[in-house]
Design brief:
Length: 255
């Protein structure tokens, strides 16, 4: 009997196990994911605005993403997938953790939001020839074992003329002080061990991965926490948190 072919994957099983333990806490705004809930508005606004500009939509309309097929890879409990679906996007939320997908699916049903949640990997989706207008890798690349391979897999699912957007953490002394020591040990915004500083990714490294995957980086923004306003906001400071957006060239654009 022929052995079943095992597809290579960029997931880190230890990271998956850690996030799987969150369970229903994903949706507790005062629980372990409280900081992600607070971070959600700024990343949601960035995605909405980038997609609206790319696909000639009015970002002020409540259904500005209508008809756009989006993939939220590493969707966790669905904190980002749900508001994007409410804006009209045809959402596919994927996560290797069956526990996370169960939580996300149950919350979507409870909220009356239609989302195609799948307990799967980027590699399996790509192997199934899935294609999307927008592929999202938000707070994911710093948790995989091979950034270049992961980005290449995600990029392969971006339609011609489509976008890939990623949010991650820069590997700097400042990010170690704020994202590890400050966020996990002092302020306890995140469970200890959520991040490993050596797996943080510099903007140059991520840009190179995008370009090697056939995408062109067209935008980058830092994200900082405004202590006085008690909210996250876009900034030119990319020393800690940052987001990149890249495009796949439309077919027939080149001469």
């Amino acid at each position: 009997m022929a052995s079943k072919k095992v597809r290579a994957t960029s997931i880190d099983t230890a990271e998956v196990a850690q996030f799987s333990r969150l369970g229903a806490d994903w949706w507790d705004p005062r629980g372990p994911m409280a900081s992600l809930h607070k971070f959600n508005p700024v990343r949601l606004g960035y995605i909405r605005d980038q997609a609206s500009e790319r696909f000639a939509r009015d970002p002020k309309k409540l259904d500005c993403l209508k008809g756009l097929r989006m993939l939220d890879i590493g969707c966790g409990g669905g904190i980002l997938s749900e508001p994007l679906a409410r804006l009209g996007a045809q959402m596919v939320g994927a996560d290797p953790s069956e526990e996370n997908i169960a939580v996300a699916g149950a919350h979507a049903v409870e909220s009356g939001v239609a989302i195609d949640y799948r307990a799967t990997t980027a590699e399996d989706l790509a192997a199934g020839h899935e294609r999307f207008d927008v592929v999202l890798a938000m707070e994911v690349v710093e948790h995989v074992v091979d950034v270049e391979a992961f980005v290449a897999t995600c990029a392969s699912m971006v339609k011609p003329g489509g976008l890939m957007i990623a949010a991650t953490l820069n590997r700097t002394l400042k990010s170690f002080a704020l994202a590890i020591v400050g966020a996990e040990y002092v302020l306890r915004w995140l469970p200890r061990g959520t991040h490993q500083w050596d797996k943080f990714v510099t903007p140059t490294e991520l840009e190179t991965a995008f370009e090697n995957a056939g995408l062109q980086v067209i935008g980058e923004r830092g994200v900082i926490y405004n202590l006085f306003a008690d909210r996250w906001q876009l900034s030119s400071d990319m020393d800690v948190n940052y987001m990149l957006v890249a495009e796949r060239e439309k077919q027939g654009k080149r001469a």
